[in-house]
């Protein structure tokens, strides 16, 4: 049974940093690309960042470029999202996903999803 468990969310002030983690089990983690998406209230889920199987390639949404960094540790079956210079508009539930077919900004490519972790940024 595949499980993805996100952690690291919380309530912070604008300009602060958070580091999200997503621990995977039940799959061969190094075979999967990983991605982070987010969903704010009354909005659709949107792409944040994705990383290839080896970690050698990444793609970021324009809103994340220069502020967020995605990384992975295949030995620990974990993918991370370092978020710096947080803004109130970053407030959302953040979800990690795993994709066997390749790293992508499109959610439909992902095979598995976590339950999400809430990030709230106050102004």
Verbal overview:
0% of the residues lie in helices and 50% in strands. The protein is mainly beta and 123 residues long. The strands form two sheets. Strands 2, 4, 5, 6, 9, 10 and 11 form a seven-stranded mixed beta sheet that branches. A four-stranded antiparallel beta sheet has the order 1-3-8-7, with no helix packed on it. It is globular.
Described by its quaternary structure, the protein is single chain
**Count of separate DSSP helical elements:** 0
Low-confidence runs: none
How many strands in all? 11
How far apart are the first and last residues' alpha carbons, in Å? 40 Å
Summarize the biggest pleated sheet: 7 strands, mixed
The gyration radius over C-alpha positions equals: 13 Å
Helix content: under 10%
Q: If you average the pLDDT, what whole number results? A: 96
Written as H for each helix and E for each strand, in order along the chain, the element string is EEEEEEEEEEE
Shape: globular
Proportion of beta-strand residues = over 45%
What class do helices, strands and sheet pairing give? mainly beta
């Amino acid at each position: 049974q595949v499980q993805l468990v996100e952690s690291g969310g919380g309530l912070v002030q604008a300009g602060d940093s958070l580091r999200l983690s997503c621990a995977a089990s039940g799959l061969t983690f190094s075979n999967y690309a990983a991605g982070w998406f987010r969903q704010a209230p009354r909005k659709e889920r949107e792409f944040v960042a994705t990383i290839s199987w080896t970690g050698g390639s990444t793609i970021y949404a324009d809103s994340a470029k220069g502020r967020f960094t995605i990384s992975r540790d295949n030995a620990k079956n974990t993918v991370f999202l370092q978020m710096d210079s947080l803004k109130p508009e970053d407030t959302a539930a953040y979800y990690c996903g795993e994709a066997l077919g390749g790293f992508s900004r499109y959610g439909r490519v992902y095979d598995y999803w976590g339950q999400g972790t809430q990030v709230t940024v106050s102004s």
